[in-house]
């Protein structure tokens, strides 16, 4: 069980830790004689290569020293000296790796800088020098804190980093100088560096960007409105910058850290609610009542329901004046937040918090209105007013102490359930009006706070009579503050309130009583119907048959009696603590069940075959209608169950009855259901109930028809034959030599059928679940994309789906919602790959998110670097202009297939084009490869003649494509050879080594020769013009006036290495992958977890979901990451220690996730981390913990923050 700790606001980590409090230590500091250098030339001290054990503690001081050394040499010297002292206090014996060398090097640098920096000091002392520099940076931050200029923002970021480090150094020097200097530095910090979570609400953060948002300004102004509050003068003597939370802290004694947290909490909630409620573009410059009322409903719904359940008036009372009403509402919300924020584990007892708020809200309203207490005759003041921990010590701790001591009684889970109380048992005490006997201030001698329970003594609880409870309801609120029970008595342990667990086989029948009862009654009815040999369902209405069938209600009465008896048995352990009204109900239900168990058989026996008949109209299917006194009794019996039927089939009525305080409704609710606070009015909607009923109607009708036709009816004839044979006509087994009845034979043939009858409902349930679930999944598009093959075929539709589902639209188009519900969203892909403006925007947004997802996969080592390259969408200027290049893993093997088709193809160009266009991705990759080759040649070939030759050949090929004569002009069987030569060229270009220039020339010449000689069937006109000019010596074409043979051999003709451009390198790598990736890429990603995540993401985009709001208009949410007393990360010892099986955790993880381990090693090698370094051990711990510890994968707000930032 956790301890109660003082709530403090979340603070950023600072350097002032306990390990660094060396200035107050009594140990003698490390000193060394200083030698001064005359010819000192300052150089930056290496702040990056530091010992691993010290890097997190001293690196910022050394970095800041290098940053400001040119402007403030003495201050830089003091920062380095401070870093040396921190390092020395952390490792005095220099045991860490590299610590001794580092300290020696830093001390030598300090010796060099001492005299030089001392001469450059601008103030008389080091303390003043530090204070001057710190104030300069502080003034700069205050002056430029609200500016958005990029240059100033960079300078501002630098100033904040420097100022935070200078403050630590200043604080150290100040404490060494004396108390007064320390006080000044502390004041300086309070002015600017006040810790906060999200909103810098103090004066130093007024210019922060988030504080300039209109909704935040409005919320802050509302929280700081304290006009008209009492005790303002007394409060201002203790607090500055007064607001509603500080006033509540002064009145009720809340902790300072809790006040800071909940102030920020309420401001963010108000801002979020206000911006969502405002429909106009320009926000209203004042907090609206609608936003406050929405928060009131959310915060106090449970409290108002609790008051209604207990019959108490709510203490939330708001004046009629609009301005005061808003202030009152904010005070109530703030009070509840402060109670909740300081309640610790009491948050698991929401009704206990309602009890606290009920009394404190009464005190708050009394203070605001100046009410006079009827008991003391003075103005009402809070019962627990005091210091900043008054509420914690006087209210939270006593209740928490009860929780803690009760938990200690459970014997680590071995004690009987009835001997100790858990959170639910303690909270259920506040579901009864008896909780007000605790009073306010709380009576710590009340039975609720009693822990010890005597051995072998029955637990008893004194209960007030009904008249006493009614008097308490009508009593004045002031009486709740006092003691309702005057007599002094020994406190007694309350025990369980409503429930004590009893484990028994009979729980199966009690929990599923409706199902068992229905099956038993249906079995009896079907046996009776089969025995009468009915030829038509209408024969059921025959008087004799109907009377026999109605005998099932006698069985129903017996089953109800068994059910109510089981209710008493299973609540027997709570008989002393249960509400007397519930005990009375159990007794009455037993009496009523016994009455019907007696009445129905008596009437059935006395009125059998004694009917009163009436003739109906001629031709009616009913014929003659007869009834008996037994049927009348059954009608009255069914009327008693009418309430249950209405509550089930009309949930609106049931909800009203359960939550109403009218006597008749309370009586009906009391009779039909246990009196519990939770679960009241939580019925399903009428539509959900209708679907639920239809499902079970189909299921039960199918089951009963099948059971009657194939199970029950076929056994009637054998049963009659066995009964007619008699015992004397055949010999029994020697185990039953003296048997006088053949009931055993009947049991032998009926037992398997009855067993199957009760068990086959599960089979029918499985069948109908599969059918209904399949239909529902089709309508909701569940599992739309289940495999990588389906993902590839529908990948082009994801950008449109992503835009419609996850991108907030500027203006919604009118769409057919029915068609969107029935038909999966598709994306009309443009064959020319040029998109409209809307489609272009969709693809760009989707590409950014998709690449982030793939990058996160790589960070988690579920994919390799190569897989990441194959799965990312290239983000290039072409994408922004509407040209889409899909991930390579979609295009794998497409080029090889296209080359194979073209190589052996015989026919017309149009037929070949149609064949390739049938596969969209194949057509894409052909076009992309051809354009990529032209683009690379355009950049690579820079010689004037060579460019003209290449351009001429490409023009000829384009002309053949336009005239649809490509198959006639080119020899397509040479395409695989051309592909291989292009791969060779691209490999040389990727390496980019200048020594490979000759190989690049040869590769280009090979491609040139292959195209012009082997592929162009009719020859190249460009090449012919060149040859004619070379052999004639005349200027046939003016392009070739200056010819140098051979082509591409000149260094000036080839630009190699290529320009240092990331986009160009990415394009070359992609082109090479398109040419080289084969069938194996069809299985990318190979990791099953990566496949599951991608398919889940793609499937979710095809599902029906609400429209995405803007991030600014989204609902506020909190992320709680439970890290208390639980292992989050494996230690180094745990990771490598061998367990009983002789296998370490790390070894086990490597075998379970071999591919992810290889990806991890690849990432470590890429990051340059040595396998023998301490950093690799830390990374191994993270890697194994992420896969072996559940909480290690809990990122809290980290993951939502990444999504929001995108």
Automatic annotation (TrEMBL):
Record-annotated membrane-spanning stretches: 552-574, 586-607, 627-653, 689-710, 741-758, 765-783
Residues covered by region (Disordered): 15-37
UniProt name for this protein: 1,3-beta-glucan synthase
A GO cellular component annotation in the UniProt record: plasma membrane
Biased composition (Low complexity): 15-25
Family to which this protein belongs: Belongs to the glycosyltransferase 48 family.
Organism placement in taxonomy: Eukaryota, Viridiplantae, Streptophyta, Embryophyta, Tracheophyta
Gene: LOC102596099
Source organism of this protein record: Solanum tuberosum (Potato)
A Pfam entry, by short name: CALS1
Every 1,3-beta-glucan synthase component FKS1-like domain range: 327-443
Keywords from the UniProt entry: Cell membrane, Cell shape, Cell wall biogenesis/degradation, Glycosyltransferase, Membrane, Transferase, Transmembrane, Transmembrane helix
């Amino acid at each position: 069980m956790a301890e109660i700790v003082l709530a403090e606001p979340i603070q950023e980590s600072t350097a002032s830790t306990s390990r660094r409090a060396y200035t107050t230590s009594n140990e003698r500091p490390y000193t060394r004689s200083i030698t001064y250098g005359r010819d000192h030339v300052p150089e930056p001290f290496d702040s990056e290569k530091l010992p691993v054990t010290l890097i997190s503690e001293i690196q910022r001081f050394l970095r800041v020293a290098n940053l400001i050394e040119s402007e403030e040499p003495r201050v830089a010297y003091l920062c380095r000296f401070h870093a040396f002292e921190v390092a020395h206090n952390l490792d005095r014996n220099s045991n860490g790796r590299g610590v001794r060398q580092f300290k020696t090097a830093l001390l030598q640098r300090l010796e060099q800088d001492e005299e030089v920096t001392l001469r450059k000091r601008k103030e008389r002392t080091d303390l003043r020098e530090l204070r001057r520099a710190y104030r300069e940076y502080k003034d700069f931050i205050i002056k430029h804190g609200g500016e958005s200029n990029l240059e100033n923002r960079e300078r501002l970021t630098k100033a904040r980093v420097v100022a935070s480090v200078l403050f630590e150094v200043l604080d150290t020097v100040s404490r060494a100088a004396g108390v007064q200097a320390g006080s000044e530095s502390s004041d300086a910090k309070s002015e600017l560096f006040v810790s906060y979570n999200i909103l810098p609400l103090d004066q130093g953060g007024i210019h922060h960007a988030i504080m300039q948002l209109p909704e935040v300004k409005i919320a802050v102004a509302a929280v700081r409105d304290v006009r008209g509050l009492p005790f303002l003068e007394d409060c201002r003597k203790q607090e500055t910058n007064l607001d509603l939370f500080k006033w509540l802290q002064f009145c009720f004694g809340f902790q300072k850290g809790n006040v800071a947290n909940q102030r920020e909490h309420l401001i963010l909630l108000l801002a979020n609610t206000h911006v969502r409620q405002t429909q106009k573009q320009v926000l209203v410059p004042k907090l609206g009542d609608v936003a406050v009322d929405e928060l009131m409903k959310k915060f106090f719904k449970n409290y108002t329901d609790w008051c209604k359940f207990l019959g108490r008036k709510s203490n939330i009372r708001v004046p009629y004046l609009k301005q005061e009403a808003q202030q009152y509402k904010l005070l109530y919300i703030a009070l509840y937040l402060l109670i909740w924020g300081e309640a610790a584990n009491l948050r698991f007892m929401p009704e206990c918090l309602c009890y606290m708020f009920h009394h404190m809200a009464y005190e708050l309203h009394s203070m605001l209105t100046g009410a006079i207490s009827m008991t003391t005759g003075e103005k009402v003041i809070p019962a627990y007013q005091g210091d900043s921990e008054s509420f914690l010590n006087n209210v939270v701790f006593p209740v928490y102490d009860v929780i803690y001591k009760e938990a200690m009684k459970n014997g680590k889970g071995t004690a009987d359930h009835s001997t100790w109380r858990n959170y639910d048992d303690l909270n259920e005490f506040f579901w009864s009006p008896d909780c007000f006997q605790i009073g306010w201030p709380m009576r710590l001698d009340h039975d609720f706070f009693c822990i010890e329970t005597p051995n072998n003594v029955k637990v008893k609880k004194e209960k007030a009579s009904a008249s006493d409870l009614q008097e308490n309801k009508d009593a004045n609120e002031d009486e709740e503050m006092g003691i309702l029970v005057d007599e002094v008595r020994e406190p007694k342990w309350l025990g369980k309130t409503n429930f004590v667990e009893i484990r028994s086989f009979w729980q199966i029948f009690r929990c599923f009583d409706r199902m068992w009862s229905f099956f038993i009654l249906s079995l009896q009815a079907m046996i009776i119907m089969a025995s009468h040999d009915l030829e038509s369902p209408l024969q059921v209405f025959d008087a004799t048959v109907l009377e026999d069938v109605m005998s099932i209600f006698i069985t129903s009465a017996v089953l109800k009696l068994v059910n109510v008896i089981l209710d008493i048995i299973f609540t027997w352990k709570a008989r002393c603590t249960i509400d007397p009204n519930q005990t009375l109900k159990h007794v009455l239900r037993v009496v009523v069940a016994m009455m019907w168990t007696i009445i129905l058989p008596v009437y059935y026996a006395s009125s059998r075959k004694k009917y009163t008949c009436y003739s109906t109209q001629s031709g009616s299917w009913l014929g003659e209608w007869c009834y008996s006194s037994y049927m009348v009794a059954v009608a009255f019996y069914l009327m008693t169950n009418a309430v249950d039927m209405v509550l089930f089939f009309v949930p609106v009525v049931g909800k009203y009855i359960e939550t109403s305080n009218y006597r008749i409704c309370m009586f009906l609710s009391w009779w039909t259901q246990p009196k519990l606070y939770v679960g009241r009015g939580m019925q399903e909607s009428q539509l959900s109930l209708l679907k639920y009923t239809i499902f079970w109607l189909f299921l039960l009708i199918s089951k009963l028809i099948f059971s009657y036709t194939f199970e029950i009816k076929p056994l009637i004839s054998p049963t009659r034959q066995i009964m007619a044979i008699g015992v004397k006509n055949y010999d029994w087994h020697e185990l039953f030599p003296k048997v006088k009845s053949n009931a055993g034979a009947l049991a032998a043939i009926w037992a398997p059928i009855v067993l199957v009858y009760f068990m086959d409902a599960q089979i029918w349930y499985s069948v109908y679940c599969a059918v209904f679930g399949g239909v529902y999944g089709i309508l909701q598009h569940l599992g739309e994309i289940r495999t990588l093959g389906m993902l590839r075929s529908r990948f082009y539709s994801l950008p449109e789906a992503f835009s419609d589902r996850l991108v907030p639209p500027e203006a919604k188009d009118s769409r057919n919602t029915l068609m969107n519900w029935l038909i999966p969203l598709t994306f009309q892909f443009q064959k020319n790959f040029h998109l409209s403006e809307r489609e272009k925007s969709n693809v760009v947004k989707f590409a950014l998110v998709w690449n982030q997802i793939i990058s996160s996969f790589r960070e988690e080592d579920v994919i390799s670097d190569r897989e990441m390259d194959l799965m990312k969408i290239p983000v290039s200027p072409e994408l922004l202009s509407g040209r889409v290049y899909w991930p390579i893993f979609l295009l794998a093997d497409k080029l090889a297939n296209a080359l194979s088709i073209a190589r052996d193809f015989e026919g017309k160009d149009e037929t070949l084009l149609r064949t390739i266009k049938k596969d969209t991705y194949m057509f894409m990759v052909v076009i992309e490869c051809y354009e990529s080759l032209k683009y690379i040649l355009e950049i690579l070939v820079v010689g004037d003649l060579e460019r003209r030759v290449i351009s001429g050949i490409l023009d000829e090929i384009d002309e053949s494509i336009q005239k649809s004569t490509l198959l006639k002009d080119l020899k397509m069987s040479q395409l695989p050879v051309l592909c291989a030569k292009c791969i060779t060229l691209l490999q040389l270009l990727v390496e980019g080594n200048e020594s490979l220039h000759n190989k690049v020339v040869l590769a280009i010449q090979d491609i040139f020769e292959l195209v012009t000689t082997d592929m162009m069937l009719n020859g190249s006109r460009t090449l012919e013009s060149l040859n004619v000019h070379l052999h004639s010596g005349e200027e046939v074409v003016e392009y070739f006036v200056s010819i140098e043979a051979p082509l591409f051999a000149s260094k000036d003709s080839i630009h190699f290495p290529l320009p240092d451009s990331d986009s160009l390198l990415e394009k070359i790598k992609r082109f090479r992958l398109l040419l080289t990736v084969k069938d194996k890429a069809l299985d990318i990603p190979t990791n099953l977890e990566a496949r599951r995540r991608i398919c889940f993401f793609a499937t979710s985009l095809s599902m029906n979901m609400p429209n995405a709001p803007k991030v600014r208009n989204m609902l506020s949410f909190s992320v709680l990451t439970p890290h208390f007393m639980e292992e989050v990360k494996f230690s180094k010892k745990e990771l490598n220690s061998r367990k009983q099986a002789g296998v370490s955790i790390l070894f086990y993880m490597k075998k379970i996730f071999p591919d992810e381990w290889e990806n991890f090693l690849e990432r470590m090698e890429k990051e340059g981390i040595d396998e023998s370094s301490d950093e690799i051990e830390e990374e191994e711990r993270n890697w194994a913990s992420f896969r072996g510890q559940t909480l290690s994968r809990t990122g809290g707000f980290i993951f939502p923050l990444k999504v929001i930032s995108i």
